[in-house]
Amino acid sequence: xxxxxxxxxxxxxxRSASKxxxxxxxxxxxxxxxxxxxxxxxxxxEPVTETTxxxxxLGSLDADLxxxxxxxxxxxxxxxxxxxxxxxxxxxxxxxxxxxxKAKAExxxxxxxxxxEKARAEAQERASRTATRTSLSAKSSSSDSVGSSSSSSSxxxxxxxxxxxxxxxxxxxxxxxxxxxxxxxxxxxxxxxxAYAQAGIDLPRVSSSQSSMGTSVSLSNxxxxxxxxxxxxxxxxxxxxxxxxxxxxxxxxxxxxVVERSLDWDMPSGAVRIL
Length: 275
Hints:
The structure is a single chain. The protein is an alpha+beta fold. The chain is 52% helix and 15% strand. It has helices at 17-40, 58-140, 143-153, 159-170, 188-197, 207-210, and strands at 175-176, 185-186, 215-217, 227-232, 235-244, 247-253, 257-262, 270-273. It has a six-stranded antiparallel β-sheet with strand order 3-8-4-5-6-7. Strands 1-2 form a two-stranded parallel ribbon. The longest helix is centred in the middle third of the chain and has 83 residues, at 58-140. The radius of gyration is 62 Å and the shape is rod-shaped.
């Protein structure tokens, strides 16, 4: 480089006085405008405040979503539980109805079987009485039966037997009522029990127990005061009192009441002697 060459100055060029004056005027005008606007504003005007909208955070959204999912799951579980309980109740009701129907059918079947068995037993008893009646009728045609019949006709009750027979005959014409024990209505065992009470003998209340007492005797060897029974000895369903002369007194049924009948009117199954 030539020693005589001019050296470039590094200082910034000075701004002209006119430009600086212009800029100062503009700035002054702006500040003046701001000052005038501030003076013109009301003294009690509230300062303008900024409103900031807060946006939900990501953590809050996750918590709300989890709570909603949990509530939905609990509702679904409760609904499922309710449906399960309702199904169980319906099943229990159906089972109870089926069991009741089955029990009723079984009870009806047993009742029908018992009725059939009772009818069969009564038919057998009637057949047995018919056979006995036929046998006695055949015997009555013989001379031995005639002699026995004459002896029976002449039977006279004495002692305790007389009291029993007299009481039984005194009730002829009274009504028959199931469970009746007097004084004006009787059932078969109630009459027998009351008659024996006249002789100071305490008998059981029911016919099956009365016919189980004493000693079994043959129908061809009866004495006044003997107890006649129908059915088996330990399971009789009817009883009466033999009063002599081939007759008995008993509370038969609601339509006849207390009556006196001959043995062949309804042949008894057997007899017992307690005196």
